[in-house]
Amino acid sequence: MASGVAISDEVVRNYDLIRVRQAGTEAGERLKLLVMCLSKDQKSIIVDDANCLKVKDVGKTDVLKKILSKLPTDECRYALYDCSYVSKESVKEDLVFILSAPETASLKSKMVYASSKAALKAKMPGLKFEWQINEPTDREVSCLVEKLGGKDTVKSLEGIPV
Question: Do 55 and 27 touch, CB atoms closer than 8 A?
């Protein structure tokens, strides 16, 4: 709570859901994207239910395009993306922490999101990758591939060769 912003229990519960595959959970019902935002009163980080995606919501479409469409281009958001990719060694699935702080968002909003990030990540142990999106070029597939190890390591992302 470094910035004075609390993290809701719902955020922690959803982190556990996206992180651990529950026995008996149908594959399509698993979370693919967990989007979080500040509450209206700016006092806590809550789940942005309208922008979260389950695996079944993504289907066979361009997964990355669908995920990026859930991050507003004029407002800040946090997100956790359950990323599937193939590296030189094996097929991998890792959670990618996303901080979307577009240039067009208010300065105050960007400052609150930046100062609350560490407290939020502390509630989500084990995250290996972070993708910060500030400008339109940060939304390119190549930016995410770099975060995952670069073109020499990553062979495909969500079933699409890179």
Answer: yes
